[in-house]
Amino acid sequence: MTVTWSTFNWTPSVVEFNPLPGPPSFNLTAYGSTDLFVDGGPKHRKIFIHRVTLENLKPGQKYVYHCGSSLGWSPQFYFRVLQDGSSWGPRLAVYGDMGNDNAQSLSRLQKETQMEMYDAILHVADFAYDMDEDDAQVGDEFMRQIESVAAYVPYMTCPGNHEEA
Description:
Elements: E1 2-7, E2 14-20, E3 28-31, E4 33-38, E5 46-53, E6 62-69, E7 72-73, E8 77-80, E9 92-95, E10 98-99, H1 106-114, E11 120-124, E12 127-128, H2 137-150, E13 155-158
Parallel strand pairs: 9-11, 10-12, 11-13
Antiparallel strand pairs: 1-5, 2-3, 2-6, 4-5, 6-7, 6-8
């Protein structure tokens, strides 16, 4: 499982996590990478992309986590590790064409994610509609909107005709 997030300042990339149910404090820590992204817009905004891979997770186990560093932590989120073996099939939500202004499926995805109806989400193109607009602030807003889904289940995208670099 890889946890990805962004900040506007460089910080270490740290995820603290714990299996559920478990002790109230985090007893596992993973460290990752921080990469600088400079937006191609007129302001050339600098955004730091953090990636931390959590290893040796138990299949089917639920974990609580937060990401950040001693400089500040995210809220707590949780995820469930996928099952292994051939006796199960993943429960997927597959959709496309969801932007900031007309995200009709977002409230349903949020509700169903919290009900643990999905093992993963595949967003097949046209996310945020031109994420690079307004010096990538359109993309920032979209990421804030989907955090309530993507922080809980693996969320994978593929580019469409509205994604460009």
